[in-house]
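ARCHIVE CARD
Drawer: 12
Card no.: 0347
Subject: one protein chain, sequence and derived structure
Cross-reference: see card 0346
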Amino acid sequence: MRVFRLSCARGHDFEGWFASSEAFDRQQSAGEVACPVCAESRITKLPSAPYVNTGARGGEAVPVVAPAGPKGPDLAAVLAALKAHVLANTEDVGRKFPEVARRMHYGEETERGIRGRVTPQEAVELVDEGIEAVPLPAGLALDEKVH
């Protein structure tokens, strides 16, 4: 398994896992590698430090110790707060999100906070039109019926 640091043409950095370097090249050539934030398919590899097995301690595993320092906020609490904020401050427009976002952007409808669903292609089209839309983090299910 190969892990690559990647970046899309819009500047979003992310990590990709591939069976091999050749597998990445094949998938990229086929347009199958896309940014998880904006669905951009123009992707480049970023420099990264490779993992090197030094064979320390006669082949025994070397324990990895996390650096000491202040602990960050509890992720579950942060996600719960984000979910509450989004639900309280947005209207769910479902699959009509691209249509409603465009009408608001072009002044045909009153601006307000909305949320909904878009395909990767629709997300790219909205960004290309200069319409701001922010994807919610994975695992933040606003609709309990979503699996």
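Annotation on reverse: Helices lie at 21-29, 75-89, 97-105, 120-128. The beta strands are 2-8, 13-18, 43-46, 91-94, 114-116.
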